[in-house]
Amino acid sequence: MPKVKSTPVPAKKTAAAEPTKKKMSAYNTFMKEELPKYKAKNAGVDHKEAFKHVASLWKTSPLNPKRAQ
Known about the structure:
With 69 residues, the chain is mostly helical. The chain is built from two helices and no strands. Helix 1 crosses helix 2 (47-60). The protein starts with 25 loop residues before the first helix and ends in a 9-residue tail after the last helix. 0% of the residues are buried. The mean pLDDT is 87.
């Protein structure tokens, strides 16, 4: 029987040193900045209510690219 020629096995690709992060949306940036401010002013409010209030502020925010003008 003839011998099978061995083919070199390609080396596995290594993971990237630093994974790329997606750019935060304008909404996420707004929430990240405004939610702590709102919670500081209104200490007794639970997270869910604070989130709702700040999300409603987003509707009229000048940072919102889709706001109704």
